[in-house]
Amino acid sequence: MANKKFILALCALYIAGLIGVSLVAAGGFFIADGLRAFVGGEGRYAKSQKEAVIALADFARSADVPYFSLYERHIRSPISYRHARELLEAGSSDLERISGFLVAGGSSPADAAKMVWLFRWFHQTHFFQPALETWRTGDALVGQLTEAATELRDLVEGGGDRTRIDEKLTEIRRIDQELTELEIRFSDQLGHSARAVESILYTVVGGLALLLSVCAAGFTAYATGRLRVAAREAAQRERRFEDILEVSADWVWETDPEYRFSFLSERLEVVTGLNRSFFMGRRRWECSADPDADYWAPHKTDIEAVRPFQNFEYRVTDKSGRQRTFRVSGKPVFAEDGRLLGYRGTGSDVTTEVESLQQLALETELLEATLENIGHGVGVIDKDLTVVAMNSLLFDLIDLPRDRFEVGSRFEDVIRFNCERGEYGDVDVDDHVASIVETCRKFEPHSFVRVRPDGRILQVRGQPLPSGGLVTTYYDVTAEHRANEALQLSERRIREIIQTALDSFVSFDETGTVTDWNLAAEKTFGWSHSEACGAKLATLLGVDDAAAFLAHLTDAQTERGTRHNVHCRSRAGEDLVVEVAVTPQLGGEMPVYNAFVRDLTHQSRFESVLLEAKREAEQANAAKSEFLATMSHELRTPLNAIIGFSELMAERTLGPIPRQYEDYPGLIRTSGQHLLSLINDILDISRIEAGRYELRQVPVRLFDVASQCLELVGIRAEQSGLKLVNQVPIDVPEVFADERCVRQVLINLLGNAVKFSNQGGTIAVGADLTTEGLEISVNDQGKGIPANQLTRVLEPFQQVEGSYSRQTEGAGLGLALVKRFMALHDGTVTLASVEGEGTTVTVLFPRSRLVQEEPRRITG
Predict the structure, then answer these.
(1) Helix (H) and strand (E) counts for the chain?
(2) Structure confidence at residue 305 as a pLDDT band (50, 70, 90)
(3) How does pLDDT run across 470-479, given as a tens digit for each residue?
(4) What gap in Å lies between CA 473 and CA 397, rounded to an integer?
């Protein structure tokens, strides 16, 4: 019985030991799985925290809001684990809520349950307290990280200084480094905990080994093995975590020592649609769409120097031909003996991000180019009244210093600057600035004209933006305003001119209705302005056929400004003759006709009197010419007889004459020849004035004619002690003219020169070819002609006034004949004279009269 009891006791003890071993083993399994769950949670905690920091760095670099949203999504995992720890430490019994936070942090529901129970059983034990304290410290740093992230967002979105942003980013990286060190420490502490649990289990199992069978010992060994696996997993996770602490992306990759891909995670195919086999065994640049691009050189330099790299971007062509952009980060991996095993890292497909940034850059460049090339000044302020855009023309229009204002300046500062330099006149600066800023905060459409101190006039228009803010445009309308002022001034002047004009001014439309009527029209026709405007023009002018009258004035075929003579009547019934000049004024809805009306009634009567007087004068002149011609013919017959008989007497053809009468025949012949010459000149003038002088035009050699004329007057010149000089070149061009007229012109000019020259003087005949034609000049050194008589001496029977003129014979027809002969040849006569020095008479034959033109200037 005792043995049986002993055996039963042993059995009971064995069973108890077996149960104890079973319980210890089960506890060991549970503790091992719980520690594994904590290790896995720590890995997700660390990965999420790292990805959040990377997203913050991208946000600080690009200011893209999606990066900050990505940070907020990643940081939720550490925050969720913190909430779970706080509830567990507070002893909360709401296990479902605690598990919910752990699941939100990334743990599976099963792992979450194990973590809750393991924490509740062992959180106050000495081997769990260090890891728990590290957890608390890490959560505090996560809180600092969230505060720093919020401050970074405010700086970036507020357009803060880049230096402050970089300082804040440095603070975030410091927090990240401290968290990394805490996470490594947490992993080590969990490893120590696992080993401590292992030691305890060894002790318990050793004590129970005396009572348990081999099965119990094996069972205990199995439990111990599970603990060792958990420790190894913790160490392996620790090493992997250290490798990818600084990277987090879409897929993981590894290369061999030759930098060829040896491993790519399945996420590559999910994210990009590219087959992993395309990359395996190939170097990164061998898979690129542009392996020879310049951006590969620094990357290859980093690889060859075995340096880690971050955020390197390169392009790969997918199956559809589209170029995708990959962003990769990696670090070298070494064996325990220091050998390079290759590189390990992560990659992301950032094609959409790069394309969006490129499109944004293009749109930004296009917007900037549009603003710079638009024809007016443009300024944009946001809802906070901060300047977000200003083009160059705006700086020029309002004379803003570019070194003082730029994008990011406050609108209030711009207004204050303008106030202080007197842009708005003599105003209270603070009050005026506050008033303008308050008005702008209403963000309402506005438009006004602003006159700058320099006189420029600006048209300012503002339009609100949908998101708040204003777009303001500035137009320089100085020229337009001045043109309008000039136009108004011109209109006033034109109105004054019209009102004070001596001629009547009338405006009427296409129906003949009068729209304007000046003072002269009131006086001429007797209708006031108020009576005339709105009435028919034909009625006011007393025209019977109104339709024909209006059609005549507004005929489109009539040339602008054509004058029409119209017979009409005034209001008092007086018959008038008026001249109407009509000009159409087009461009409006209905054409308007402007007419100047001149009263020709008195002028017409006066013209009739003048025409009658002219006709009578012409008849008298014709009678005079006829009388002179008749008298000249009647006188020539007896004169020829007198000259003939005087020559017979002088030659004593019929016998001698008494001595006392010997000189009489010569005197009679000389007087008769002089009288005959005078009669011939009168006949020539009469024929020219009557239009009956016929030219016999032939090529005339001026040198020969000049020589002949000089011979004819040579005897008289010699008797007067004068010297004659022929300065006409032999090769002067011939003139197509009447030779007798040319000879008579030169004889008359030379005769006058001999007649009025002083003894011992020189008379010269010269020729000069000019651009206008051929000039023949006769120059003497006589008494000269007074300037006030130069025109008069060219008229018939006119001589220089004074006693000297009476000392010479002549009737004053020489120069008059010269003028008329030259007129018959389309030429002119010019006199230049200085009293006491002499006279030069120049006759001009136009180039059309030259038989041969020479391109040289001829001088005597």
Answers:
(1) 25, 22
(2) very high
(3) 888 888 888 8
(4) 11
Name every residue whose Cβ is closer than 8 Å to that of residue 244 and which is 6 or more positions away in sequence: 47, 50, 252, 344, 345, 346
Taking the C-alpha atoms of residue 773 and residue 310, their distance in angstroms, rounded to an integer, is 96
Mean pLDDT to the nearest integer, 823-851 = 88
Phi and psi, residue 82, nearest 5°: -65, -45
CA distance 50 to 33: 26
How many CB atoms sit inside 10 A of residue 319's CB?
A: 9
Query: Does the model's pTM come out above 0.70?
Result: no
CA distances from 138 to 78, 178, 181, 210, 259 (A): 9, 8, 9, 45, 37
- Three-state DSSP at 397 gives helix
- At a CB cut-off of 8 Å and minimum separation 6, what does 733 contact? 769, 774, 850, 851, 852, 853, 854
Banded pLDDT at 4 (limits 50, 70, 90): low
The separation between CA 397 and the C-alpha centre of its own chain, rounded to angstroms, equals: 14
User: Measured between alpha carbons, how far is 67 from 802 in angstroms, rounded to an integer?
Assistant: 117
d(Cα 65, Cα 50) in Å, to the nearest integer? 19
Q: Helix, strand, coil shares of the chain as percentages rounded to 5?
A: 55, 20, 25
Sequence length of the chain is 860
Q: How far is CA 615 from CA 152, 621, 686, in A?
A: 110, 10, 19
Average pLDDT across the chain, whole number: 78
Q: In the 8-state DSSP scheme, what is residue 782?
A: B
DSSP symbols for 486-535: HHHHHHHHHHHHHHH-SSEEEEEETT-BEEEE-HHHHHHH---HHHHTTS
Look up residue 196 and give its two tokens: 């401590």
What 8-state DSSP symbol labels residue 695?
A: P
Residue 178's pLDDT is 86
The one-letter code for the residue type at 624 is K
Closest CA to 202 of 178, 234, 179, 224: 224
**Beta-bridge partner residues of 733:** none
Side-chain half-sphere exposure of 808, counting CA atoms within 13 A: 19
Distance CA 119, CA 133 (A): 13
Sequence-distant (≥ 6) Cβ neighbours of residue 693 within 8 angstroms: 684, 687, 824
pLDDT digits (tens, 9 = 90+) for 749-766: 888 888 888 888 889 999
User: 60: closest CA among 178, 176, 162?
Assistant: 162
Structure-token pair, residue 632: 């000249």
* Tokens coding 796: 């018939």
Q: Give pLDDT tens digits for 374-433.
A: 778 888 888 888 888 888 888 888 888 888 888 888 888 888 988 888 888 888 888 888
Per-residue pLDDT for 852 more than 70? no
Q: Mean pLDDT over residues 828-844, rounded?
A: 87
Q: Are strands 723-727 and 762-769 parallel, antiparallel or unpaired?
A: parallel
Query: Cα 22 to the chain's mean position, in Å?
Result: 92
